[in-house]
Structures are given as C-alpha cells and as structure tokens.
Sequence to fold (635 residues):
Amino acid sequence: MSNYHIKHLEEYYQVYRKSVRNPSAFWEEIAEEHFMWRRKWDNVLSWDFSKPEVKWFEGAKLNITENCIDRHLFTRGDKTAIIFEPNSPDEEALHISYKELHERVCKFANVLKNNGIKKGDRVCIYLPMIPELAVSVLACARIGAIHSVVFAGFSANALATRINDCDCKMVITSDGSYRGAKTLDLKSIVDDAVENCPGVDTVLVAKRINSEINMVQDRDQWLQPLLDEASTDCQPEIMDAEDPLFILYTSGSTGTPKGMVHSTAGYMVYTAYTFKNVFQYREPDVYWCTADIGWITGHSYIVYGPLCNGATTVMFEGVPNYPTFSRFWEIVEKHKVNQFYTAPTAIRALAKEGVSHLEKHDLSSLKVLGTVGEPINEEAWHWYDDNVGKKKSPIVDTWWQTETGGIMITPIAFCTPTKPTYATLPFIGVQPTLMDADGNELTGSQVNGNLCIKFPWPSMARTIWGNHQRYKDTYFSAYENQYFTGDGALRDEVGYYRITGRVDDVIIVSGHNLGTAPIEDTINEHPAVAESAIVGFPHEIKGNALYGYITLKDSGEGRIHDNLRKEINQLITDQIGPIAKLEKIQFTQGLPKTRSGKIMRRILRKIAEGDTSNLGDTSTLLNPEVVESIIEGKK
Ligand code: WT7
Fold:
C-alpha cells in the first residue's frame, strides 16, 4: 500500500488513522518519498497553538520550483505543464512544456535579480490570467522572493493597501487585460496605486492588449525586452523549510486585509499530496481549475499542487459567458479535460442558462468534478452531477480557506461516497472538531457547532504579515488550543461534515470573501452618509449578495437624490472593487442597536432575507421602534 496514493475507502480510513496516530512519522514518509530536498529535516513537527507557533520539516532545505519543474525535466521535459487558453476562442491556445516553463521561469527570475530583487524581498503581482502570472509566481519562488499576488479586479486603493502592508519593492503588471468583450486598463490602476507606495521602485509591464499606456521614467519597464536578454540559467535559491513562500491577502470581519503568510516545505508537501488524491490525478490527465491565480485556489491548485505532480494544468484567461455560455464546455472538449474544478456560483450561473450549451459538446473526457469557495446548494449539486458529470463523475466538494493553504474537508474521488451539500470527511492528517459557544467540544454525530481544527497540518498559514498578535487573536483565541475557522458545520451520523457558512461578519459573494467592516467604512466616507450596516442575503447566482442599510446625515448633505445609490456603489468600486458593490440599498432612519451601541446585524439579516415572522429577542435594543420602520421601508 502506498500512502501517497489512496485508492479505496478502506485505504483512506487506514491511512487517516495512521496520519493522526503518529503525524510526524506519517508526514515524514510522504515528504521523504515524493519530494526533492537539498537537505532533510532535523525535526518533522514542533507546535504550540498557544503562541501560536508551528514548524514543519525544520532544518530541511529545498526550493519549491525544483520540485515543480526541474525534477520533471528528464522524465517529462516535453510534456505540457501549462495549457494557456486565451479569453477569445479565436486566439490559439498555448502549450507550455516543462522544459519551456523551466526556461521562462529562469529568465524571469534573472530579470527579477537584475532589477535588485533578493531573497526575502516582497514582490507584488497584479496580472490577468496570462502565462506571465504563473511564471512570475514561480520566478519569485526560484530566487526566494516572497510573492504577493493581488487579484487584478481589486481597485487602486485596495492594491496600494496591499503593496504597502508588506512593503513590496516591485509590482509586476500588464498593459491591460481581456475579460470577455471588455478590456481593462490595469496599468493605470497600478499607476494610481503606486503613487501612494513609496517603497516601490520598479514596475514591470507585460504586454497583453497592446494599448497605449503611460510609462513612468526610471520606474516602469517593458518586460519582454528584459526577458529577451536574460539568461536561461538560474540556480534556485536554497530555502529553509519555514522560509515564507508567499503572502496572500484575505478579508477579515474587521480592519485591514490580513496578509496570510505561507511557508515553503509544508505548503509544498500538503498541496501536492491533496492534489494527487482529492482529484485522483493520473498521468497524462489534463486538469482544469477555473479559479484565478489571484486567489488561494489558483496558488495551490493551478500552480503549485499540479506542477509538483508533473501534471498538465489549464489556465483560462476568460469568463464563462464569453462569447457564449458554452465557453467552459468548449474548453473541456477542446483540451479533453479530465478533472474540472470550479465554484458553486459559476455552476448556478451556467445552470440558469439551460442545458443546450452543454449538449453541443463532448464532455466524455471528464472523470472528476470539483467545487470550492462556498457551500453548494442541493439544486446546483444535482445539476452539476446530472448534466456535466452525467452521474458518472464524482463531485469533490472541497472545503478549505486561504489560511489553510490546502483542501481540508473533502471527498477523495472514487473513494468517498459523496452526499449532496456535504464536504464529507477530513482529509488525511486533518483533525476537525465542532465546538459550542461555551467552549465545549461536541462529540458524537448529529451535532452542529463552530468548526475548529485541533492539530496542525503542514500547509497552515504561519502568521499574518507584520501582525502576529492579530493572527493569534483571530484564529487561536476563540477556543483554547484550537484553530478556529470562522465557519459553522454539522456532522452527520456517519461522520460527514456539512459546512453551513460563516459565523462571523464575513460574507461570501460569488465565492469571494468580503468583510463587512471595510465596506461599511467606505460607505461612511460618502458625504451624505451618517452610518451603515451591511448584511448578506441569499442570491440565486451569487450565493449571497450584499444588502446595505444606510442612514443619512441630518444636515444638508444628507439628502436622498437620484444618483445617491450609484454614487455609493461607485465609491465602493473605487475603494475596494466591483465585487463589493451592494445589490440593494435601503435608506433608513436609524439602525437597531444594543444598549452598548452594537448594531444588531441578526435582525437586519432577517429583514434582508424577508423573514420578519420571528425576529428573536429585541428587548435588549436601545431603539426597538426603528425595526418597524425598517420593515415598512423595505416594502
Ligand atoms: C471560506 C474561505 C478555499 C478556496 C476558496 C475560498 C468558504 C470554501 C467551501 C466549501 C462551504 C466553503 C468557507 C471558508 N468555503 N469552500 N466547499 N463549502 N464553504 O477561500 O476566500 O479564504 O474563503 O470559503 O466559508 O471559510 P477563502
């Protein structure tokens, strides 16, 4: 039996038991047999959740790009590593072999070096889904620079916050991007952002849409001429196991975005191992994850996990509905995709358009379907199963987070019997618990509680950049000696988990994590606004959408006028990005508050959902009369 490659349910249980009885011995064996090390570890695991401090494979030395690229060169040099599928079906797809990827990464790494980037420096990557994105990520890893990829849908303001938070020296961007029928002017967003980023001395610009852009002297450089001149030889920087590999920002329920720091060895081992097993990847399968590399799903399951396994991974630049709603299925047919991994929001959007788009395409290559990002509703699950998988392809509903680095609760394809809306069983080595509000662990089945993890796993984030205290407060303070996920979950009679959603003030809209506080802060900047509260409400396609309750100032500025809703949404678009726009805005006379001044979101949530039959206890409210007027005003 190979622990690296699980093939039956009994094997899963056996390996799982092994992994929790003696985690160090288990992970040591996985690490030893399937990865390339420059030096082995002195100690597999040391941990203390009270600090919190976690170290995996301490003392080991490696470079993750040697594992993702170099070691495949002899056996898979000509094999396609990345298939780049452009936005427009009229443009040809690009097949990048492992050999070519090696060359591109080495050249890019040399360009970084030639521009003063050294081990430990932070580099911000703000690129569309073009090959340069994957290549620049790997180039940073090659020389030990810490990449911080910012999704290229964030506004200048949001970008600047992220650049400054971790003090990036360089930004890598493009002259623009294609998104469906539109082009976006990324470079001017970067220009606006970098104006407020004193630490940035270089901006590298990839050419994608051939638009006229402004190049700032002594700061901006076209990438291609630099690449043309760079050497294809770049020895990998030898990193310590616990050296940071990257920073990726995620929204918190309050405050600024959190720069989650992921380290090298544990992240590599865990993302590779989960990729192989969850999706049951076998060569020469073609695997496609539709996420953007700007999110953790793309980091772990477009780039690092697949490449570490020598897989062929598809990178798609476009959107599901351009030029038509057949686009995804066209791509599946064209590249004979075997594993397809997407988000519930995309499934719902496609389901709404009917099955005619699917029927035109041969989807028989599909073996495994995946979903991630938010709870999948039963209807969407069945639509996916019936029409895309033709009831033959298992659906892996993978629960995890930016913070966890890799998939945590999930079926293993062909091993774990699936159950609609259930993420099912913990992955190997993962020890989930359900906790009640009083800090007691809920044992047994048929229980519903707050989802925690009681033992470290290799790819967990090690800290929040520049703020270890916040890391501790956010994840390790709710329950003693447990990592608290922020999600609620229930466990059924066979031990399957169903994730019920966030239990904090984070709202997941179209699979994107949004904190309410930063959006409220932005709205409150509008001169007419006195105060605001955001809640989520169910949305057919997006899963959740944002409902904003806004009170206006008593003074002259606080008048409702025709454009006010537009202005508020424009402000949000400018400050955060279009994903955070409000679906509904209701102007109210006041907001329901407790005597201590806390907004009672629970009530606002119910009103937004249209369920006012039972608003629960309102006796603690300072201003109960306001609730009636809000219900009236909604009608
Ligand atoms: C939050 C994390 C992990 C990559 C994408 C999101 C929700 C994620 C599932 C799932 C139910 C899910 C959780 C989690 N979530 N996957 N399969 N079922 N909920 O990463 O942006 O860090 O968001 O997404 O609420 O806490 P993220």
User: Anything to note?
Assistant: The radius of gyration is 24 Å.
